[in-house]
């Protein structure tokens, strides 16, 4: 396997900035790809060891392109996550004034994060989506658009000027990125972990989603992401992408996954990995009756009852 990481490019994306915060990135060749799909396909094809892509932002939730790529195709697994605070700059060719701007571009996930600023400052500007924010900057450099929303750090890379900086509609906006590789044994639990899965119901029936969520709730497992995605099998057919607190080696998480495997048409395990928002060992205490020790004790009690030793 090549010692390289694919990432959503071109150079100068927020994805690249987040990737470079990983210590192991310094020992890998970092290769930009034109889309999330092509970066993940590079891993599936054995052209890269792993891919680093955005998966969620605090304004709009899950990034559907990434979720859909993880839902479909050859299975992949998440190994790490990174959180990056996001603010945008309006990048233009030198000499461009605000009144000159008729067209703007950026990645689709950027639009909800600058919508109010755009309405207040460039209400007549036409928005066009780009494959990434850095690609939008490249298109401005080539003269295709008048301005791009991107990281201020991308200006020098593409010979542009930051006409406005610190642009964001929501304070403390963050984007979550994940390092995705081919399936293997998950890393050891840290005490502050997250488990990601995709669930498909056997059929559509009243209380179906409640049944799925009940497998987590009865074991005291908090959910951090719940997003439905269409399966492509027709209107009303959805699967559910879920991030849950805990690691697959935790008894409560393992039992929840076993319960889901029994009642779901399909369960895709996307990995158990360290959380980026809290330090190892800093997860909230488990609810009474949901610790590993209590699961072991309960199982031992059942075994003793079966043997007539209660």
What's this, in brief?
This protein has helices at 14-19, 36-44, 64-71, 111-121, 133-141, 154-157, 208-217, 251-263, 292-306, and strands spanning 4-8, 29-33, 50-57, 61-62, 77-85, 88-92, 103-106, 126-129, 147-150, 161-167, 174-181, 193-201, 223-230, 238-245, 264-274. It has 310 residues and is α/β, with parallel strands linked by helices.
Explain how this protein is built.
- By secondary structure, the chain is of the alpha/beta class.
- 27% of the residues lie in helices and 31% in strands.
- The strands form three sheets. Strands 1, 2, 3, 4, 5 and 11 form a six-stranded mixed β-sheet that branches. Strands 8-7-9-6-10 form a five-stranded mixed β-sheet. Strands 13-14-12-15 form a four-stranded antiparallel β-sheet, sandwiched between helices.
- Helix 1 links the parallel strand 1 and strand 2.
Structural key phrases:
alpha/beta; six-stranded mixed β-sheet
Question: What layout of secondary structure does this protein have?
Answer:
Layout: E1 4-8, H1 14-19, E2 29-33, H2 36-44, E3 50-57, E4 61-62, H3 64-71, E5 77-85, E6 88-92, E7 103-106, H4 111-121, E8 126-129, H5 133-141, E9 147-150, H6 154-157, E10 161-167, E11 174-181, E12 193-201, H7 208-217, E13 223-230, E14 238-245, H8 251-263, E15 264-274, H9 292-306
Parallel strand pairs: 1-2, 1-3, 7-8, 7-9
Antiparallel strand pairs: 3-4, 3-11, 5-11, 6-9, 6-10, 12-14, 12-15, 13-14
